[in-house]
Amino acid sequence: MPNTQNHTTPLRILLIEDAEDDAQLLVDHLESEGLVFDWRRIDTERDIIVKLQESWDIIISDFSMPHLNGTRALETVRRLDPDVPFIFVSGTIGEDTAVKAMRSGAHDYIMKNNLNRLLPTIQRELRDAQARREGRHAEQILRKLSLVVKQATDSVFITDSKGRIEYVNPAFETLTGYTADEINGKTPAILRSGKHDVAFYQQLWRTINCGDIFKGTLINRHKNGELFHEEKVITPLKDAQGHITHFVSTGRDITARVYVEHANARLISILEATPDLVAIFEQDGRIRYLNRAGRQLLGLDFEEEVSTRHVQDLVHNDTAQQHISQALLAVREYGIWNGETVLRVAEGKRLPVSQVMLAHRNADGTIEYLSTIMRDISERKHFEAELQHQTNHDRLTDLPNRFFLVDRFTSALEYAKRHGEYVAVLFLDMDNFKRVNDNLGHAAGDSLLQQVAQRLKGCFRSNDTVARHGGDEFTIVANDIKNSEDVLRLLQKLRTAFERPIFIGSQNIYITFSIGIALYPHDGDQIEDLLHHADIAMFWAKSSGPNQYRFYASEMNARSHELLKLEEDLRLALDREEFLLYYQPQLDLRSNRIIGMEGLIRWQHPVRGLVSPADFVPLLENSGMIIPVGEWVLRQACRAHRTIREAGFDNFHVSINVSAAQFSDEYLFDKIKRTLQDEQMPQQALELEITENILIKDPISATETLRAIHGLGARIAIDDFGTGYSSLAYLKRFPLNVLKIDRTFVSDLIDDPSDAAIAEASVSLAHKLDLEVIAEGVETIQQLEFMRTHECDMVQGYYISKPLPWLELMKFLQRR
Ligand SMILES: Nc1nc2c(ncn2[C@@H]2O[C@H](COP(=O)(O)O[C@H]3[C@@H](O)[C@H](n4cnc5c(=O)[nH]c(N)nc54)O[C@@H]3COP(=O)(O)O)[C@@H](O)[C@H]2O)c(=O)[nH]1
Fold it and tell me: Annotated Gene Ontology MF terms (predicted)?
């Protein structure tokens, strides 16, 4: 017979039976019915307690036992296992007892003499026990589920198949504002917002009525009228036959997310529309997003291009890049940075911008990204610069005003202190301004001041400052002043600039100034002191009459006054033919003949008498007048030589001095060539004396000029040899003919062995270089004999003759 049980393992049956035979009888019967099972027999309450530690599929118990009564056994079993099927099999149990036993938890009772009913009863009880277990399990799950639903943050409601709400969870109540009591029995249509059309709901119902799951976003309306967005899933529930019995709706409130998305979209459209540059970038500066204004400014069209850029690429130069690096550090540290920088925009142009940089942090405080907004401040900058200019400059003349002057003055003093130079402060007061203003009116006065300002500016270098002090007063701060002569040159420049009149209306107005001068550090090292002293000096100048200047330090006044006057006179000297050329004879020690002469300039001043070249040649050189005057000397010397030639003197030369300023005259060569031709001068009869400085200052151009002159046939002598820094070896590089030993070595050579040694060595070395040697300043016979002994070729000096005027020279030559 087949085993009727469902177990794959044998059933486990516990027999509570005192009679072993009866137990065996029962076992035999069940086995004969085909039941496969394990079994145990027990007959005490203690055994029950022990055995029920194990699991049993069914318990079959006798009712009347000597040591245990059936009711007691049932109670003990039920206490330990409420579910296990319990069947009484007894020969003695009466109807009443059996009913009572059933009420106490027995599942059935069977008479021992009617065991046929036992197997079906066992099978039925096993099934029922299984069902009970499953039911209880289902109940537990349901309880858990309902707890989950109750505590869920998603809103849940359940309707019947007609859509009438049967259950809502607390989240639903919160989301919709309706309580379970208010809404149970109603349909979800109560939540409709009017934002979806009829077709939308028809589609929803069609889906779920077909047994499919609906997923979608619904806009519903809260009890208070506000809209909310729900991400919804509606699942139909079916019974065993597949009929829909319920619908379960779960919904997630996504209103905030929808708003954020809307807000983001809105934000992006705002960022794209703003004229400010907005960038979002990584901590290291790589750009994630650059708005339209930014892309246009930088000429970047594509997102890929933007993403390869660095925020530092946006800015103009190294300084701005450093700025941004510091900003990145600051924003990481403090979360915000405010500043200004300069953007590099199209065509390498600069755009000043104000900038705010922000750090955006994650919930844990780490930085997620950085953002910056930059605003074009070029107009403001322009305005600021304009304002700054207006603050610093005089409205009428546009010259720096006195406040800005102090600024520039401070820098000038700092520079001069560092470089050991002078700074000159000139205080200028126009002599005749009041008259112009009174006679021609204020407009003319203003125009005059403007033109004067322009002319003053033209006299000075850009690092000097010409400022309007107020009214008709101007202050000038001049840098790079090496000595008082430099100041005089400035004064001369000023005078020259105002030699021309200023044209106002229909009038020519000549302008003169009273000028006070103070020198740093001579007259003070504080700005206020220097300005005050220049002012005082101006007052002294003014009180001496118009067109005067005064140094604050009186000793400078005398010297500078003299120099300036001398310079003024010098300008007229050439036209007035006040220059003379003296000649100093030169003796050839080999032949004992006068073989040449040096032309030396003199100035016959109408008042001062004969002025030494030492006093005016430097002025000629500084003013550039040496060029026309030097040309005069050349012509004069060549003419004199012509007369000497014509008087029968052969093999005679004339030397003249050529200064550095003449050497930079690009026409020097042409002038020499032309003069030689004009005076039909044998070229080798002309000797040009140059100093070492000319060679050292610009050796390349000096070589070129010397070669050209040498090429003409003229001789070149190196003058003042030994006073400069050159050596004979150095001189070898130049085309020279004569070396002139300076008179400082000659004057002491009798008493000073080192001078004697220098003179001796100079002669010997010069000869080795094929140069002739002439010693100048020979005043005694001893000096002359020294030179003769040491084979010097020629001598020049008072011992032979002082420099002589032309006629006296001729007499001298004839005498010799
Ligand atoms: N560029 C030009 N420079 C010129 C010119 N004429 C002269 N000078 C230079 O001026 C400096 C002074 O010249 P000067 O006062 O004429 O002095 C010369 C001689 O008088 C003087 N000398 C001559 N012999 C003696 C002497 O025995 N004792 C003594 N104490 N002085 C003497 O030496 C001067 C000659 O110098 P040098 O030119 O070096 O031969 C002077 O530097 C001239 O160069 C000119 O036309 N252009």
Answer: cyclic-guanylate-specific phosphodiesterase activity
Judge if 293 and 425 occupy the same domain. no
Do residue 745 and residue 669 come from a single domain?
Answer: yes
585 lines ligand 1 (CB under 6 A): no
Closest CA to 567 of 521, 612, 619, 525: 619
743 lines ligand 1 (CB under 6 A): yes
Provide the domain limits for residue 756: 579-815
Q: Is 628 helix (H, G, I), strand (E, B) or coil?
A: helix
Residue 804 lies in a domain: yes
Q: For position 137, what pLDDT does the model report?
A: 87
What's 709's domain CATH number? 3.20.20.450
Q: Does residue 39 belong to any structural domain of this protein?
A: yes
Domain final residue, candidates 314, 349, 382: 382
Let me know if 744 is exposed, middle or buried by CB neighbors in 10 A (0-12, 13-18, 19+): middle
- What would the pLDDT profile of 176-234 be if each residue is shown by its tens digit? 999 999 999 999 999 999 999 999 999 999 999 999 999 999 999 999 999 999 999 99
Last-in-domain residue among 357, 382, 407: 382
Please indicate, yes or no, whether residues 241 and 291 belong to a single structural domain of this protein. no
User: Which mutation among 570, 580, 638, 657 tests ligand 1's pocket best, with the greatest number of atoms within 8 A of CB?
Assistant: 657
User: Is the CB of 722 within 6 Å of ligand 1?
Assistant: no
- Domain shared by 451 and 517, yes or no: yes
Q: Do 66 and 26 belong to one domain? A: yes
Conformational region of residue 755, where left means phi above 0, alpha means psi within -120 to 50, and beta covers everything else: alpha
- Per-residue pLDDT tens for 551-566? 887 666 666 667 777 8
One domain, residues 51 and 189: no
Say whether pLDDT at 314 is over 90. Answer: no
Q: Is the pLDDT of residue 498 over 70?
A: yes
Cα-to-centroid distance, 703 and ligand 1 (Å): 25
Lowest mean pLDDT among 31-40, 170-179, 565-574, 734-743: 565-574
- Residue 190's pLDDT is 94
User: Is residue 251 lining ligand 1, measured as CB closer than 6 Å?
Assistant: no
Q: ipTM score here? A: 0.94
